[in-house]
Amino acid sequence: MAERPAPIERPELVHAALGRASTADVARPLSLAEQLANVDPVRKFTVLLGAIVLWELYTRLAEVPPLIFPTFADTIVALWKGFTQYGLAAQIWTSLSILLAGYAIGLVIGGALSFIAVSSRFGSDVLGTLTSMLNPLPAVALLPLAMIWFGLGEKSLIFVLLHSIVWPVALNTHTGFMSVAEPLRMVGRNYGLRNVRYIAKLLVPAAFPSILAGLKLGWAFAWRTLIAAELVFGAAAEGGGLGWFIFASRNEMDIPGAFAGLLTVILIGFLVENVIFRNIEQRTVVRWGMQS
Amino acid sequence: MSAVAGRVRLEPVPRPEIELTPLDASRIGRIERPLSPIERLWNVQVVRNVAVVLMFVALWEAYTQIADVPALLFPSFSDTCAAIVEAFSDHRMMSKIWFTVSSLLTGYAVGLLAAAVLVSLASIWRVWADILMTATAMFNPLPSIALLPLAMLWFGLGTFSLVFILIHAVLWAVALNTYVGFQGVSLTQRMVGQNYGLRGVWFAVKILIPAALATVLSGMKIGWAFAWRTLIGAELIFGATARGGGLGWHIFEHSELLNTTQVFAGLFMIIIIGVLVEYVIFRTLELRTVRRWGMQR
Q1: A8, A262, B34, B271: which has the fewest Cβ within 10 Å?
Q2: In angstroms, what separates the C-alpha of B133 from chain A's closest C-alpha?
Q3: Shortest Cα distance, chain B CAs vs residue A9, angstroms
Q4: Residues near A180 by Cβ (< 8 Å), separated by ≥ 6?
Q5: B-chain residues within 8 Å CB-CB of A255?
Q6: Do B174 and B50 belong together in one domain?
Q7: What is the pTM of this model?
Q8: Do B61 and B98 reside in the same domain of the chain?
Q9: What is the interface size between A and B, counted as CB pairs within 8 Å?
Q10: Are B41 and B163 part of one and the same domain?
């Protein structure tokens, strides 16, 4: 091998030495406060605490009358009183049991409708037309009619809940089924899956993100409808449930009580959306790698 | 066989026992035939949809006429149509529709604006992102109609209370979806934007919004759905406690008078407005943007 030629010196291109870098520490361990601030729950919790402190300070310093805006402390006391004296727990149970009954029946009907729709083109047309017409109709609007048909009571509530659950669930399930990729369908047929087994083993898992979205939307609509319906019931007659608790507290000018009712509504909604549905998501679509 | 395959090509051994004799093609009949006009008509989506609607209307009319259902319980289709015509004969129905639509539009517009401000703040400062996420997690599951009794206390009976709860209905759904959509914009697209020297508002308008439009649109649709349901519910309650003025009140007023035919007429108008918004306005928006850009099927 030939000798390696020495590099040509180009003094005009060589930069004079810069000396020690005058920057401070390039990498340094984060302080404890900084480390804490990088943890998501810590920051969110701080925001929550900050909001509560602001609320308490505002109502105390500006001396807002509790009739307009009660302090946080008052609200907590009212919440405690609601549970111990005014039977808030029973009201929650009334609301939740109706909601669960409506949700369960709604799921069955929505599922049955989408199974019928997926088995024939005409069924799919019937479902498509029905959902596109009835989905934009707010379920509460049917409440006066339901009250004429079924009287005041659980039946009317469940009827309007059904209306608010069936259409979003059926619509999303059907769209999900329709957009299952052709190779997946072929795999199913290759395994000899037919009818119910084809739907249960192939279509449902493949369309699960869409189905879950429908379930969440159905829950959101049902929850809103239920509270609204209980408010209307509260206005029209003696009812029960959380919506009625808010309405009754407000009518008695017990505003801390109304705030306590709202807090309960928020807590339940938060639990269902961020604990129950989040868990289902983690265990199914996230784990299967269909959604991040 | 492989040893000689290179040079000598072996003739296939005739296996008459597994050979099929060709079938007589005339037994199969026509494989391809032109569709009859009825079949071609039936293949048009719109025709089938209209047929389904007509079928339901016919069933409804037949059921009410044959079973002699009292109009108090379930009015027939023809009665309902007559009621709609009657309601439109003077200006009451138009003014009710206008009342509903105008409060909806006001609430929706202000809600969108508030969501835009919140999301902009959240994309610039991390503190605001935390505030937005915490507030959304808390207020999104809170049905805005539950705030109505308080809103009535704070702002009195009137359009302002309605607009307040409509803003609450729209704001969180739109803000959450927009923010999540912005977070999901790929780094490559962001870098393209930075490469073009886009900053601040222009970066959002030209890069973030188009790239996240599918999510933003679905947030807007959910916001509209919540607002629409909230508004009708609120009008029902307003009707129960004081003079209101929209379509929800029309339903409530006539159900109190046991005038079920007019209730059906009100429901019809609500369905028509809902279908118009979801399947004309939002569908057109989707067709012209996310579907045309190939972001959504």
Answers
A1: A8
A2: 8
A3: 37
A4: A202, A203, A206, A207
A5: 150, 153
A6: no
A7: 0.82
A8: no
A9: 172
A10: no
Please tell me the distance from the alpha carbon of residue B33 to that of residue B41, in angstroms, as a whole number: 16
Alpha helices, DSSP H only, in A9-120? 32-37, 40-61, 72-84, 88-119
Q: Which residues of A touch B145 (CB under 8 A)?
A: 224, 227-228, 231
Domain at B162, CATH number: 1.10.3720.10
Q: Which helix (H) or strand (E) holds B266?
A: helix B260-275
B271 and B218 in one domain? yes
In a domain, B244, yes or no: yes
pLDDT digits (tens, 9 = 90+) for B133-178: 889 888 888 888 888 888 888 888 778 888 999 999 999 999 999 9
B116: containing domain: 83-291
In chain B, the residue whose alpha carbon lies closest to the alpha carbon of A235 is B240
pLDDT digits (tens, 9 = 90+) for A128-181: 888 888 888 988 889 888 888 888 778 888 999 999 999 999 999 988 888 888
Q: Using an 8 Å Cβ cutoff, are A277 and A216 in contact?
A: yes
Residues of chain B with pLDDT under 50: 1-3
Q: Which of A46, A147, A266 sits opposite B141 (nearest CB)?
A: A266
For residue B5, being part of any structural domain is answered with no
Q: Write down all domains in chain A, each with its CATH number in brackets.
A: 80-286 (1.10.3720.10)
Residues B248 and B156 occupy one common structural domain? yes
Distance CA B121, CA B128 (A): 6
Residue of B53, B131, B143 with shortest CB distance to A223: B143
